[in-house]
Amino acid sequence: MAEAARERVSQSVEADYRLDIRGEVCPYPVIYSLEALASMEAGQVLEVVADCPQSFRNVPEEAVKHGYQLVREPERNGTDLRFLLRVP
Length: 88
Description:
By secondary structure, this protein is α+β, with helices and mostly antiparallel strands. Helices cover 38% and strands 25% of the residues.
């Protein structure tokens, strides 16, 4: 029951901006994500889609280090990685 409720909440988060950086290798997914977040306003959510395996850990880790919030755990769908990051 709790898992179903969590799933509904996580699906209800909508991104204000989407950054598709598939094809870029690290460190570029981190760099581009941080640049995009820096240009956004408080409360806005950025969806990042990448396919560099290292970005699965690096993008959320660096975003949190820079003060941004990870809206939910990173998702992996085949080679695509998806992150939702919020500007506090």
